[in-house]
């Protein structure tokens, strides 16, 4: 999938797509409305960050492109791509155990920290689009 040139957009199924790891300089878009929430995205080749209503949702180092991002009661689901392998941090329920699937394979169960953040690594270089699923 391609980078999101407009930095953030809502897909037909209601999922969010955001991020542009091809940018050499920081770009941001604020006050993007989707499903009654306001989103802010900051992105470029070194980092991509998403906030919802001023609260942390997603961050990657280096920058990535995310397609079809959905957060439900069952977990968080999206497809990620990037020029290099990336370290992702995703906002979830605090102190809760999740099973993480990367490219359809379980990487095991991980407990989120007290701040509600979960860290994972994704091998992106040469792999194209990689589906990620973080499930209760």
Topology of helices and strands:
Layout: E1 8-10, E2 16-18, E3 27-34, E4 37-44, E5 47-52, E6 55-61, E7 65-72, E8 75-81, E9 86-91, E10 97-102, E11 105-111, E12 117-122, E13 130-135
Antiparallel strand pairs: 1-2, 2-7, 3-4, 4-5, 5-6, 6-9, 7-8, 8-13, 9-12, 10-11, 10-13
Account of the protein in words:
The structure is a single chain. By secondary structure, this protein is mainly beta. It has a single domain (8-135), classed as Sandwich (Chondroitinase Ac, Chain A, domain 3). The protein has no helices and 13 strands. Strand 3 (27-34) and strand 4 form a beta hairpin. The radius of gyration is 14 Å and the shape is globular. The mean pLDDT is 95.
Features:
136 residues; mainly beta; Chondroitinase Ac, Chain A, domain 3; seven-stranded antiparallel beta sheet; six-stranded antiparallel beta sheet; 13 strands; globular
| Uncertain regions spanning at least 5 consecutive residues | none
Q: Provide the helix percentage.
A: under 10%
Q: What is the spatial order of strands in the main beta sheet? A: 1-2-7-8-13-10-11
Structural class: mainly beta
Q: How many domains is the backbone divided into?
A: 1
Characterize the overall form: globular
Order of helices and strands: EEEEEEEEEEEEE
Q: Whole-number radius of gyration?
A: 14 Å
CATH class: Mainly Beta
Distance N to C terminus = 27 Å
How many runs of DSSP E, i.e. beta strands? 13
| CATH-defined topology | Chondroitinase Ac, Chain A, domain 3
Quick structural summary:
With 136 residues, this protein is mainly β.
């Amino acid at each position: 999938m391609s980078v999101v040139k407009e930095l953030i957009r809502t897909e037909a199924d209601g999922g969010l797509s955001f991020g542009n790891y091809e940018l050499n300089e920081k770009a941001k878009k604020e006050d993007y409305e989707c499903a009654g929430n306001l989103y802010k995205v900051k992105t470029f080749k070194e980092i991509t960050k998403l906030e919802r209503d001023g609260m942390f949702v997603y961050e990657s180092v280096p920058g990535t492109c995310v397609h079809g991002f959905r957060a439900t009661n069952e977990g968080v689901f999206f497809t990620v791509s990037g020029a290099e392998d990336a370290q992702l941090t995703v906002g979830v329920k605090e102190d809760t155990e999740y099973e993480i699937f990367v490219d359809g394979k379980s990487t095991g169960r991980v407990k989120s920290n007290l701040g509600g953040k979960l860290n994972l690594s994704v091998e992106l270089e040469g792999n194209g689009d990689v589906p990620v699923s973080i499930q209760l």
